[in-house]
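Exercise: predict the fold of this chain.
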Amino acid sequence: MKVLVIGGGGREHALAWKLAQSGKVQAVYVAPGNGGTALDPRLENVPITDLRQLRDWALKEKIALTVVGPEAPLAAGVVDDFRAHGLRIFGPTQAAAQLESSKAFAKAFMERHKIPTAEYGTFTDAAEAHAYVDQKGAPIVVKADGLAAGKGVVVAMTAQEAHEAIDFMLLDNKLGVTHNAGGARVVIEEFLQGEEASFIVMCDGRNVTAMATSQDHKRLQDGDQGPNTGGMGAYSPAPVVTPAVHARAMREIILPTIRGMEKDGIPFTGFLYAGLMIDAKGQPKTLEFNCRMGDPETQPIMMRLKSDLYDVMMHATSGTLDQVELQWDRRTALGVVMAAGGYPMDPRKGDAIHGLPKDTEDAVVFHAGTIPRDGETVTSGGRVLCVTALADTVKAAQQRAYDVLRHISFDGAQYRRDIGFRAVKG
């Protein structure tokens, strides 16, 4: 069978890498792919980004299964289009993807279906947004309503920071946020205390199966300092998601979301990612929904998955996920992101990467912002690589990942030196 993975980041490299391990898969194509997928002999890059052209290509090539990695093609309706042409594709429809593409839609949905989340207000008018911040005080969270590649959230510790974020998002709209019907809009939320975790499940419209738990590190610098990013590293499993928290998240957040979408006439298929804030009492609240796997969480999760991902995806696109029980490696997987100089606001590009190692059973370097050029692999985006390792403990996985990372270099490289610190400390 031939499989297509849409996207070109680290998440897509990890999904393609895992799909290629299936004995039932003869070819895995990645569109457009990256420098890492270009280096893997089992994968083939397809230089097509136009979704209609890609659909025509998939029809011509008789692609048996398409998996969508990033959010933008989902919000643009790629699933609806592929399905309308008889192609099997895993992901949510354009309407269902609003859970991610519109924070205002998601918050209203959660309120309607009584799903635990932070108190909030939605604003298009800057003066009203400023007045709300004055009324509520800080700390407070300001979010751009739309897709902003993980950078549209400001956790404002002072009222001044919140006011600046409102002006930046509503008046300047510098984030290039897309998929809003009525222009710039912000959601302002109460600040939640606790520990974050990524709770990712697969859905076939009715049935749900949970992926391994994970935790990512959003801030750029050690000790959770610096600006928010798309994610600087992740590990799986996440100790903060105890069996009790897991059961509660399924019962109070995931299942009501799937039932609610079905009730609203928008059945959800695909990966559903709930960003959770878990308080000291083990009470989870929903920070956000994503309609795809997380990046960099996918990389450690795929390292731990023992089941045949192709088989699982075929069940997920046939409405038979209830027949699947995922098998996981008991070890911990931990991934450290190497980012370009200037990331997150103005990343450098075009720097040659040196010292890339061969994959081993317990360490894989997944590529994100890389491209092949003149026989070299060079940087082409903000998050460049995710160095991922498997070991018996978080500490050992951390040590293994940093041992591998130490041999890789490119000009301006930046990375955190404390990925997994909460689990090691705990």
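Check your answer against the key: The chain has a mean pLDDT of 94.
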